[in-house]
Write a structure and sequence with these properties.
heterotrimer, A alpha/beta, B mainly beta, C alpha/beta, B: mainly beta, three-stranded antiparallel beta sheet, 1 helix, 8 strands, about 10% helix, C: alpha/beta, Peroxisomal Thiolase, Chain A, domain 1, ten-stranded mixed beta sheet, 12 strands, about 40% helix
Chain lengths: ~350, ~130, ~400
C-alpha cells in the first residue's frame, strides 16, 4: 500500500471579490455570493502560470517530505492550463526541483481532476515497486470568459503530493475507485481562449452523477460508512455543489468545513480537491480518516479513502495553506484584466 | 533582449535553481557562476554552489519604464539581494510595490516567469524573490 | 606620464541632439573636420586615427566603423581603429591616441567619438544600451540602466542620507550650464520643481535625473607637445590618462555607493600627474544619471563620501564656485551620444583651459579633468589636462 509522504499547497496572493466582478456586469453581488457561495477568488500574478504554481507547491512538498530530490521516480502535472500546448509542464517542474534526469514525467489533462488522476498513477507505480516515490501535482490558472458565470469562480492554485511506501507516509491511501463516462458538460477546443459549458447540464448528469457514483462505489467496495470518517473533501466548482452532496449523504457540516475552501479562493480546477485535502492535512490528527472525491468534466470522479498516521505530527508547519490564503491583496477589475492579459495589444 | 534557445537552455539550471559558484580555497561565494576565483586566481578551486534563495534586500527600485519584454509587467520591483550564503544577485521582488520594500528586509527565493511576451516563443522561467513575512 | 608628452592641438564637435537629417558618417565627418580645422592641419599630417563608438552595429547596422571613418574623412590609407568600452568608448579611444603618441609610434593622431542613436525608438535604444551591463544576469531579469543607477542612489541615500533634492540640484545646475552651451541638446534651464516632480523612471530617479538619447560626434587632434607649438598657441597637455576595470554586474560590487574602477583610475591619474583633487579647477564627470555625478565627485576626491549631495545642493559645483563640475551641461543637459561623450568632455576641458568656455568659463582654469564611465562602472577612464603653453 502507498501513502502521502509529503504535500505542498500554494495559492497566489491576489484576489478579486465577486462583488467587484458583479459590478462590471450589472449583476446583483448578493445573488452571486449566495448562488455560487464564492466570495472571492485567487488570481495569478502577471508572472505566474500553472508551471510556477506547481513549482511553488512542489518545493513545499519536497521540504515536508524531507527526501532527496533525485529520489522522485515519477512526476505528473495535471492541469487544464498547461502553459504550452506541446512541451511538458512536468519537465520544467522536475528541473526546478532538481529532480532531473532519472525520472519519468508527463502532463495530464482531465479538466478538474487531472491532479487526482496523477495521484492514482503514482499509487500504482509505488505499489508495483516501479518507483519508490512519485509526485502528483494539480495546478491551474483557470480562465473564465469575461461576463460568464465562470468568471466568478475560475481561480488559480496548486497542490503537490509525494506518494511513497505506506510505512513512510503521514497519511495512508487506503483505497481508491473511479467513475468515468463520456459526458459533454464542459470543454475547450484547441485555440479557444475560454472553455464552454452546458450551464445547468453541469449539475445532475455531470457533477452529481459522477461524484455520487465514485462515493458510493468506494464506500461499498470498502464496506464503509460516513460515520467512520472525520473529514470529507469534494471537488468544489462552487460552494453549492459540494454542500448539496454533503446534505444528500447526511454528512455533518463540520466534517465538510475544513476541506471546503472554494468560498475564499474560488475553483482552482485541478488543484481544487487536492487543496481541500491539503487544508485538512494541515490540521488532521493521527488516526483520523478522510474521504475525498474529485470531479473532472468530461467526465469522471476519483474517490480516495485516507487514514492519517503518527508521522503527521512531524510535518513541517512553515508553509500551511492558510498562510497563502490569508496573505492576500484585492484587485480592481481593471488590474485583474491586466493580470489576465485580457486587454487587446498586450 | 530576446535570448536564443541555446542561450536560454545553457543558463536554465542556474536560473531555475540559483546556482553560482564558491571557491574552496578562500571560501568566497559568487553569483553567477565563474570558472576562476578573482581572489585566488591559479590557487583557487571553484565548484558549483546552490544557494537557498534566502537573503536580504541590499538595494531596490521600482521600474516604471520597462524594457522590451517587460512592458506589460510594469511597475515591478527589482532588487540586489544579499544572499544568506554570501554573494549578491539581482532579481525581481514579486507581489510587491515600492512602498512594501525596505533595505534589510528578509526575502526567500521563488520561481516565476521572467519573460514570455512572444505568444509563439518559449517561456523564460527563473528565480525571483518574495518578501518574507 | 611615461614616454613623450602629448597635447591636444585641436577640438571640434557637432551640436548634440536629434539630427534627423544626418547619419552616422555625416556626424563623425563634421566633428573630425572641425577638429582638423581648429588644429590648422591640412589633414595629410595625420598618421593614425582612433574612434570610440559603443553600438554602431546595433543602432545603425554599421560595424567596421574605423574603416568607414577613414574612408569618409578622406584619411585612407592611414590606420583607423574602433575602440569599444560601452559609454566610456570615447575616452578609451583618446587613451589609445595618447599611447600611440607617447610611445613614439605616431605623431599626429585624430581621435573621434560618435553615436547615432535616434534612428531607433526609445525602447530599442534602451535595450541596446542595456548591453553595457550583464545581459544574462541583470538585463534578462528586467533591470534597466536607470534601474541599476536607481539602486546605487537608494543605497547612497540609505548610507549617507542623500536626498532627492540633492539629486535634483545636480540636474538643475547641469541644465543651467547647458543653457549656456551652444552645442548642448537642452539649452534650457529647469527649476527644482521641474526636477523633483518629473515622471518617475526608476524610483528615486525621474526623467530629470536621466541623460537623454542623443546623436552627436566629437573629435580631438593629438600631437607630441614639442610639435604642438607649430600648430596652436594654446596646446592642452594631457598629463594623465588612466583606465581601470570593475565587475560588469552591479551586484558583484562590494559597494554601490562608489565606483571602485573610477576611484582607482582617478587615484592613478592624480599620482601620474603629481596632482591632488584640490588642484583641479574644472571637471567633466560622467553624469549619465544625477546620482552618478554625486558618486563621481566623491570617487574623484572633490568631496568626502556622503558630502557630494549637500555640496551640490549648496551650489559648490557651479562653474563659479568651489569646483566647477560639468560646465558643458554634462551628459544630462548637453546630451549623451554614448561613444562621443568622452571626447566631448575632452573638448569642453580644452575650451575651458584655452579660455573659450563662454557662458560657463571658469576663472583662471588651468587644470582640468575628465571622468568617463562605461556601464554601471565596469570601465572607468580618467584624464587630467593642463595648459601646455
Amino acid at each position: 500500500m502507498s501513502g502521502i509522504v509529503g504535500y505542498g499547497a500554494y495559492v497566489p496572493k491576489y484576489r478579486i471579490k465577486s462583488e467587484t466582478i458583479a459590478e462590471v456586469w450589472g449583476e446583483d453581488p448578493d445573488r452571486i455570493k449566495e448562488g455560487l457561495g464564492i466570495l472571492e477568488k485567487a488570481v495569478p500574478a502577471i508572472d505566474e502560470d500553472a508551471t510556477t504554481l506547481a513549482v511553488e507547491a512542489a518545493r513545499i512538498a519536497m521540504k515536508r517530505a524531507g527526501i532527496p530530490r533525485d529520489s522522485i521516480g515519477a512526476l505528473y502535472v495535471g492541469s487544464e492550463s498547461h502553459p504550452y500546448a506541446v512541451k511538458p509542464t512536468a519537465c520544467a517542474v522536475a528541473q526546478a526541483l532538481g529532480a532531473v534526469p532519472n525520472l519519468t514525467a508527463a502532463d495530464l489533462e482531465f479538466a478538474c481532476k487531472a491532479g487526482t488522476a496523477g495521484i492514482q498513477m503514482c499509487m500504482g507505480m509505488v505499489d508495483s515497486k516501479m518507483i519508490h516515490y512519485g509526485m502528483a501535482i494539480g495546478s491551474d490558472t483557470a480562465q473564465g470568459r469575461p461576463g460568464d458565470a465562470l468568471e466568478y469562480s475560475a481561480a488559480a492554485g496548486a497542490a503537490a503530493y509525494i506518494i511513497g511506501p505506506n510505512d513512510e507516509s503521514m497519511a495512508i491511501l487506503e483505497d481508491t475507485l473511479s467513475y468515468t463516462t463520456d459526458t459533454p458538460d464542459f470543454w475547450r477546443r484547441p485555440k479557444a481562449d475560454f472553455p464552454s459549458h452546458g450551464g445547468r447540464f453541469t449539475g445532475p448528469p455531470a457533477y452529481f452523477k459522477h461524484v455520487m457514483g465514485a462515493f458510493y462505489g468506494l464506500m461499498q467496495k470498502m464496506d464503509e460508512k460516513v460515520e467512520n470518517y472525520d473529514y470529507f473533501v469534494f471537488h468544489q466548482p462552487n460552494a453549492k455543489f459540494p454542500q448539496a452532496v454533503a446534505k444528500q449523504l447526511k454528512i455533518p457540516k463540520e466534517k465538510l468545513a475544513d476541506g471546503l475552501i472554494v468560498p475564499i479562493i474560488g475553483n482552482t480546477y485541478s488543484a481544487a480537491s487536492p487543496l481541500g485535502l491539503a487544508n485538512v492535512l494541515d490540521k488532521a490528527e493521527p488516526g483520523q480518516r478522510i474521504f475525498m472525491v474529485s470531479f473532472g468534466s468530461g467526465a469522471g470522479s476519483d474517490a480516495f479513502s485516507i487514514k492519517v498516521t503518527d508521522k503527521i505530527k512531524n510535518r513541517d508547519r512553515a508553509y500551511p495553506l492558510s498562510k497563502f490564503i490569508n496573505e492576500k491583496e484585492y484587485l480592481s477589475y481593471a488590474i485583474y484584466s491586466k493580470l489576465k492579459g485580457n486587454y487587446k495589444g498586450m | 533582449m530576446k535570448e536564443s534557445i541555446a542561450l536560454m537552455w545553457r543558463r536554465l539550471p542556474e536560473r531555475y535553481k540559483l546556482i553560482g559558484s564558491a571557491c574552496e580555497n578562500c571560501k568566497t561565494h559568487y553569483f553567477p557562476p565563474r570558472s576562476i576565483c578573482p581572489k585566488c586566481r591559479r590557487k583557487g578551486k571553484i565548484s558549483r554552489f546552490e544557494y537557498s534563495g534566502e537573503g536580504k534586500v541590499y538595494s531596490f527600485t521600482e521600474i516604471s519604464a520597462g524594457p522590451i519584454g517587460f512592458e506589460h509587467q510594469t511597475p515591478y520591483v527589482i532588487a540586489i539581494i544579499e544572499l544568506a550564503e554570501g554573494a549578491k544577485c539581482l532579481g525581481q521582488i514579486v507581489d510587491a510595490r515600492l512602498a512594501d520594500v525596505k533595505i534589510g528586509d528578509p526575502v526567500e527565493g521563488t520561481f516565476r516567469k521572467i519573460q514570455s511576451d512572444d505568444p509563439e516563443g518559449p517561456i523564460h522561467y527563473g528565480f525571483k524573490f518574495r518578501l518574507k513575512k | 606620464m611615461q614616454g613623450r608628452k602629448v597635447a591636444i592641438i585641436g577640438v571640434g564637435m557637432t551640436t548634440f541632439g536629434e539630427h534627423w537629417d544626418r547619419g552616422f558618417r555625416d556626424l563623425v565627418v563634421e566633428a573630425g573636420l572641425r577638429a582638423i580645422q581648429d588644429a590648422k592641419l591640412t589633414g595629410e599630417e595625420i598618421s593614425a586615427g582612433y574612434v570610440g563608438t559603443m553600438a554602431s552595429g546595433a543602432l545603425v547596422g554599421q560595424e567596421h566603423a574605423g574603416a568607414l571613418i577613414a574612408d569618409y574623412m578622406g584619411l585612407n590609407p592611414i590606420p583607423v581603429t574602433r575602440v569599444e568600452g560601452a559609454c566610456a568608448s570615447g575616452s578609451l579611444a583618446l587613451r589609445q591616441g595618447v599611447m600611440a603618441i607617447a610611445s613614439g609610434l605616431h605623431d599626429i593622431v585624430v581621435v573621434g567619438g560618435v553615436e547615432k542613436m535616434t534612428d531607433l525608438d526609445t525602447a530599442a535604444v534602451s535595450e541596446i544600451l542595456g548591453g553595457a551591463g550583464d545581459q544574462e544576469w541583470e538585463l534578462f531579469m528586467g533591470a534597466t540602466f536607470p534601474g541599476l543607477y536607481a539602486m546605487m542612489a537608494r543605497r547612497h541615500m540609505h548610507e549617507y542620507g542623500t536626498t532627492k533634492e540633492m539629486l535634483s540640484a545636480v540636474s538643475v545646475k547641469n541644465h543651467w550650464n547647458g543653457a549656456r552651451n551652444k552645442y548642448a541638446q537642452f539649452q534650457k534651464e529647469i527649476t527644482m520643481e521641474d526636477a523633483m516632480t518629473a515622471k518617475m523612471v526608476a524610483d528615486p530617479l525621474g526623467l530629470m535625473d536621466c541623460s537623454p538619447i542623443t546623436d552627436g560626434a566629437a573629435a580631438v587632434i593629438l600631437a607630441p607637445i614639442e610639435k604642438a607649438a607649430s600648430y596652436t598657441k594654446k596646446p592642452v597637455e594631457i598629463v594623465a590618462s588612466e583606465q581601470a576595470s570593475g565587475t560588469l554586474a552591479l551586484h558583484s560590487r562590494k559597494s554601490l555607493t562608489s565606483i571602485e574602477a573610477a576611484k582607482i583610475a582617478g587615484a592613478k591619474a592624480y599620482k601620474t600627474a603629481g596632482l591632488t583633487p584640490k588642484d583641479i579647477d574644472v571637471a567633466e564627470v560622467h553624469d549619465c544619471f544625477t546620482i552618478a555625478e554625486i558618486i563621481a565627485t566623491e570617487d574623484l576626491g572633490f568631496f568626502k563620501p556622503g558630502e557630494s549631495g549637500p555640496a551640490a545642493l549648496a551650489g559648490k559645483t557651479r562653474f563659479d564656485a568651489e569646483i566647477a563640475i560639468n560646465t558643458s551641461g554634462g551628459l544630462k543637459a548637453a546630451g549623451h551620444p554614448v561613444g562621443a561623450t568622452g571626447i566631448k568632455q575632452a573638448c569642453e576641458i580644452a575650451w575651458q583651459l584655452r579660455g573659450e568656455g563662454e557662458g560657463t568659463q571658469v576663472k583662471d582654469a588651468k587644470i582640468g579633468l575628465t571622468h568617463n564611465v562605461g556601464g554601471s562602472g565596469a570601465t572607468a577612464v580618467v584624464h587630467i589636462y593642463k595648459q601646455g603653453w
